[in-house]
Write a structure and sequence with these properties.
Largest sheet: 3 strands, parallel
Number of strands: 3
Distance between the termini: 28 Å
Radius of gyration: 13 Å
Strand content: 15-25%
Strand order of the largest sheet: 2-1-3
Helix content: 40-55%
Oligomer: single chain
Order of helices and strands: EHEHEH
Shape: flat
Amino acid sequence: MVKRICLVENDLLCVFLVRKVLEKHGVKHTLQHFNNGKPAIEWLEIAINERLALPELILLDLHMPDMNGWDFLEQWST
């Protein structure tokens, strides 16, 4: 079962719904939430450098201001 989840989503209603769905299905998790891709990338880089536990699942909104999901995927894959 997934225990560490990273949610990159700027719509607070979607964040609320994701939390509720996870709770409803009994998923015991740590949810790290970011409003856009840039702080998520920064947090992941720090986690890697400090050898912290990485998320097992990243839920990514593709349409966000600043760094959208496509930009996140492009930067993360390089």
